[in-house]
C-alpha cells in the first residue's frame, strides 16, 4: 500500500476545502441565472395614423421623434418585468389591411388601436375592421385591447361614445359564453 506523504495530504485537504467553500458560496450567493420570462405573441392592428407605431415605440422606450408610419409590418419585443410581448404591428393602409389575416396565426392577444378623433368615414372603416377581426376564427377567442388613442385632441370621442358607436356592449353579450367572458377592454391614452 502506498501511503500519502504529508504534503500530498495537505494538498488533498486544501482541494477538498476549496470545493466545499466554492459549493457553499454558489449555494448562498449565486442562485444561478434568473428564470426565463414568458413570451406572448400579440398582433397590433388599426388604421393608418391611429398611433400603433408611436404606442410600441413608447413602450419600448424609444424616442418619439422620427416615427414613420409602418408599411407592411414590423415586429417589436416589448420587455416588461415579468414577461416579454412580441408584437407584430401590421400597417393600416387600404392595400395592406387585406393581408392582415395572414399574420394572425400564433397570436395570443390583439391590440386594436383607433384614432378617437378621426373622421366619421375613418371611424366607420375602423369599426368594420374591428368587427371583422373579432369574428376571425384565429382571433375570436383571444383577448382584445381596444386602445382609444388621441384622447388629447379636441375632437376625441369619449370611451362611452366609442363603446356605443362600435357596438361593443352587444359584442360582450354575444361572446359571454366563450372561454374569455370579457373579450375586449377599452383603454384610453
Point out poorly predicted stretches: 172-183
Tell me the distance between the termini: 82 Å
- The average pLDDT score comes to 80
Q: What sort of overall outline do the alpha carbons produce when their principal axes are compared?
A: elongated
In short:
This protein has 189 residues and is α/β, with parallel strands linked by helices.
Keywords, please?
six-stranded mixed sheet, metal-binding, metal ion binding, magnesium
Describe the protein's architecture and organization.
- The N and C termini lie far apart (82 Å).
- The longest helix has 24 residues.
- A six-stranded mixed β-sheet has the order 2-3-1-4-5-6, with helices on both faces.
- The radius of gyration is 27 Å and the shape is elongated.
- The protein contains six helices and six strands, in the order H-E-H-E-E-H-E-H-E-H-H-E.
- The protein has 189 residues and is an alpha/beta fold.
- 35% of the residues lie in helices and 21% in strands.
- About 6% of the residues have low confidence.
- One of its GO terms (molecular function) is GTPase activity.
- InterPro entries: ARL15, P-loop_NTPase, Small_GTPase_ARF/SAR.
- Keywords: GTP-binding, Magnesium, Metal-binding, Nucleotide-binding.
- This is ADP-ribosylation factor-like protein 15.
- Belongs to the small GTPase superfamily. Arf family.
Amino acid at each position: 500500500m502506498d501511503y500519502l506523504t504529508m504534503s500530498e495530504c495537505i494538498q488533498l485537504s486544501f482541494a477538498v476545502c476549496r470545493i466545499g467553500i466554492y459549493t457553499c458560496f454558489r449555494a448562498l450567493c449565486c442562485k444561478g441565472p434568473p428564470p426565463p420570462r414568458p413570451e406572448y405573441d400579440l398582433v397590433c392592428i388599426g388604421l393608418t395614423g391611429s398611433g400603433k407605431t408611436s404606442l410600441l415605440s413608447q413602450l419600448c422606450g424609444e424616442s418619439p421623434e422620427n416615427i414613420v408610419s409602418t408599411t407592411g409590418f414590423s415586429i417589436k419585443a416589448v420587455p416588461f418585468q415579468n414577461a416579454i410581448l412580441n408584437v407584430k404591428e401590421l400597417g393600416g393602409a387600404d392595400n395592406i389591411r387585406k393581408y392582415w389575416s395572414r399574420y394572425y396565426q400564433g397570436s395570443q392577444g390583439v391590440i386594436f388601436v383607433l384614432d378617437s378623433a378621426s373622421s366619421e368615414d375613418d371611424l366607420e372603416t375602423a369599426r368594420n375592421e374591428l368587427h371583422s377581426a373579432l369574428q376571425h376564427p384565429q382571433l375570436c377567442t383571444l383577448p382584445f385591447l381596444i386602445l382609444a388613442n388621441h384622447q388629447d385632441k379636441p375632437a376625441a370621442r369619449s370611451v362611452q361614445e366609442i363603446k356605443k358607436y362600435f357596438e361593443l356592449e352587444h359584442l360582450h353579450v354575444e361572446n359571454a359564453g366563450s372561454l374569455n367572458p370579457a373579450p375586449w377592454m377599452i383603454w384610453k391614452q
